[in-house]
C-alpha cells in the first residue's frame, strides 16, 4: 500500500474517486500501525529489560503512521480553502521519509520481539536442565514422582516454544536440525521415565545406571543443539557444514564444468581437479564398505577411473581454447564437457543404486525384529549367556544400519534429507547400546516389571527408527527420480497435540483399520491427482516459476496426506493431518497470489478467466482452513473432520489440475505472440512477495502476543485493495 502511494502518477486532473482511494489507503495504513504498536507496547510492559528500546520504536512507528495519514488527507482538495494544506501532492518527499521511518521502526520492533522469543526458549531450556539435575540425584520414588511431574510440564512448555520456532525458521537445514533435536527430546522423555524408575528399583545395578546416564546425556546434547539453532551459534568454532556428500559434490562439479561454456577463465584447472578428487575420495566409502556388492564396487571403480580420464581430456581442450578460440576447438570443448557430465551422472546413478539397494535389503531383512524379540524372551528367562549372544547380534545389526545411513547420506539429494540421515545414524548408534544395557538389567532381575517395561521402551524406539528409514528411503528415491523434486520441505512437522501435561498421551493417535478402509478411496483419488499435477509441472521449462513451485509444494503435501490414509508416511496422528491441511491451504493462497501476478503478464482477453479460477482457489482454501481449524471431540467427530479435510484437499487438487494446463497454455500463447511476456509492474511483485511471507504457518500457542504482532504487520503491508 505504501509503495502504491509513493509510485502514484502526478496527474493534473484528480477525480474524487482517486482522492478518496488515496485517503482510504493512508487511513488503513495508520490504523494497522496503531494496532501493531498496541501489541508492541503490551510486549514492552511484560519485558522490562527491553521496555525502553521497544517503546521508542513504537513511538516512531506511530508517528510515521500519523504522518502518512495527514499527507494522504486529500479528499478536501477540491475546496479552495484547503490550498495551503500540505499533502502527498505537494510534499511527496514527506511520504517517502515517513515510509522509511515506518519500515525501520517496525523492523526494530520485530527484532526486539524476536530477542524476547529467543530469551523465552533459553529460559525454558534452563528450567528443564535444572529439573533434570534434580531427577538425576533423587533417591526415593515419592520424590521422583513429584519432580518428574514438574519436569513433564516444563518439557511441554519447551516443546510448544520450539515447535513455534521451527515453524518460523526459513532455512530448511535449520528446520530439519530442529525437528531432529525435538524428536530426540520427545522419545527420550519416556526413556528417561522408565530408565530412572529402573535405576531407583535396582540402585546397585551397573547396567541400569549406564542405561539411565545415556538417556540424560543424549537429552542434554539435544537441548544444546536446539539452543545453537535458535541463537545461530556453534560451540568451539564448530563448522556448520557437514562433510560434503557425493550428490552435492557432483552437482557443484558439473556446474563448474558447464560454466566453461560461458567463461573459460573463471576458475583454474587445479580447482576442478581438486573437486573431482574430493568426490572420488567419498566414493571410497562405498568401495571400502563390507556391505557393498562386488558388482557395484567394480562399476564405481571403473567410473572413477573414467571420470579422471574425461577430466584430463577436458582440461587439455580447455587450455588450448584459452590460447586460441577457434570453432573446431570450441566444438571439441563442448564434446568434452558433455562426456565429463555424462560420466558424473553415471557415477551418481551407480552410488545411488548401491546405497538404496543395500538399504532396501537390510530393512527387509530386519522387519521381523527377531533379535529384539529374542532379547526380551531371554531377558525375562534370566538367561545371561543367551542375552550376551543376542546383544552381539544386535551390535552387528547396529553396525550395518549405521553404515547404511552413512551411504544414504551421500545420495539423499537434498540438505534436509541429508540431515535426516545423520539423525538416523546417531539414533542407531546410541539406541543400540541402550537396548543392550536394558536387556542386561532385565536378565539380572528377570522378575522386575519395570526393567521389562524399560526394555520395551528402547525396543520401540529402535523399531520406530527402522520404520522411519523405510519412509526416508522412499523420499530419497522420489527425489532421485524427480517425482518430488526438492519440494519435500514438510518432513518433520511439530506435533502440538502430542505435548501435554499427561505424558501417557505421547502415543500417536492413528486411524484404525476400519477408518482407513473407509477413507481409502478418497486417498487413492488424491494420489492420482498428485501424479497429474506432477506431470503438468514437469512441462514447464522454468521450474523456478512461482506457479510451478507452489503447485509442486501443494502436490507434495497432498501426497503426504494420501500416505496418511494408508497408515504410512510422516503424518502420524490426526492432529498432524489437520496441521498439514492448514499449511496446504496456505500454500494454495500463495498460489492464488502468484496467479494474480501472472495475470498481469497475459493478454487482456485471457485475464478474466484466470482471475476467476484464482478466486475459486482462494474460496476453496479458506473453506479447507476453516475445516482444519474446527474443533472435534470424540472418535466419530474426529473421523468426520479427517474425511472432510481429505475431501476438500482433493477438490483443491482437482482445480489445480485445471489451472496448471491453463497457465501453461497462456504462457506459450504469450511467448508465441510477443516473443516474451510483458513485465509485471514492480509494485505487484513486491505485493506478491509480501503476501508470500505473510502466509507462513500459524502458530499453535500464542505465548504473549507475538503472533498478533505478526498479523498486524500483515495487515499493514498487505491490505487488500477494494
UniProtKB/TrEMBL annotation:
Gene Ontology terms, MF aspect: actin filament binding
Name of this protein: Alpha-catulin
Domain of life: Eukaryota
Compartment(s): Cytoplasm
Family: Belongs to the vinculin/alpha-catenin family.
Main subcellular localisation: cytoplasm
Alphabetical list of InterPro entries matching this protein: Alpha-catenin/vinculin-like_sf (IPR036723), CTNNAL1 (IPR030045), Vinculin/catenin (IPR006077)
GO cellular component, one term: cytoplasm
Keywords of the record: Cytoplasm
Keyword field contains Cytoplasm: yes
Listed GO biological process terms: cell adhesion; Rho protein signal transduction
Name of one Pfam family that matches: Vinculin
